[in-house]
Amino acid sequence: MDDLLRVHDPGLILGIVVSSALTLVSCCPLLLLPQYTDDLPFKVPLMPLLPLIALLAAVILLLHFNSLVYVGVVVWLCLGLIVYFTYGMKHSVEATRQDVHLNDQ
């Protein structure tokens, strides 16, 4: 267990802590959304505890990756976002509505 928690780069720890904090802060607006009182077909078991344990496990795993892995993740993330947004802009319903509206005038 000691080897699992041993970290080689303090900058990496800082990056993971900052990204985890930003993730938690960005999830705060979700608490303002209306809560459903209906019986839903699926609920997360142990709701507050299980996601926190999963987050902690992911952070511990991230501490042991090589810096080249993080570069690869960022590159693939950027490529995925480019594909996602270019496809979304070309195939969105709102863009189609605007094109039809501009052609009518």
From TrEMBL:
Alphabetical keyword list: Membrane, Transmembrane, Transmembrane helix
TM ranges: 12-32, 44-63, 69-87
Q: Which Pfam families match?
A: AA_permease_C
Kindly indicate whether the keyword Lyase belongs to this entry.
Answer: no
User: Is-annotated flag, keyword Nuclease?
Assistant: no
Q: Which domain of life is it from?
A: Eukaryota
Domain Cationic amino acid transporter C-terminal, by residue range, is 42-92
Q: What is this protein called?
A: Cationic amino acid transporter C-terminal domain-containing protein
Natural source organism: Patiria miniata
